[in-house]
Design goal:
Order of helices and strands: HHEEHHH
Radius of gyration: 15 Å
Largest sheet: 2 strands, antiparallel
Strand content: 5-15%
Number of helices: 5
Helix content: 40-55%
């Protein structure tokens, strides 16, 4: 299964949007299967953007994670990725330059665009 940065963003923003600070119990997104969401939750745990549990089992169709909350890094990514215009601009730059990017580079690009919008060097 390929990593989907749009789904990563959706998951992070949905968790951050919950007023409790905990991830909603049932993360579902239109156009995505439960397996895709579970796998991307697993990736967010692995990347240190979220806290939770690896709930993969022998019966799982793919690795899957259960997210309880975001980490500091997850909140930082949410802050950088929240603005839709900035998000689209960053993805446009990525597409123009080659089509793929690591989450670290994407976050740096989003932060650079954020700094530019604020008039910071």
């Amino acid at each position: 299964m390929k990593r989907d940065l749009e789904l990563i963003r959706k998951i992070v923003l949905a968790i951050e949007d919950d007023p409790s600070g905990f991830a909603p119990g049932d993360l579902k997104f239109e156009g995505y299967t439960d397996e895709q969401v579970g796998y991307h939750a697993y990736l967010l745990l692995d990347a240190g953007f979220a806290k939770g549990e690896d709930i993969s089992s022998m019966d799982s169709d793919a690795p899957e994670g259960f997210i309880s909350s975001l980490t500091w890094a997850g909140h930082e990514f949410a802050d950088a990725a929240r603005d839709e215009t900035r998000w689209r601009k960053a993805l446009g730059v990525v597409q123009e330059k080659g089509g793929t990017v690591t989450i670290g580079v994407l976050t740096q690009l989003l932060v650079t665009l954020m700094k530019s919008a604020l008039g910071l060097p």
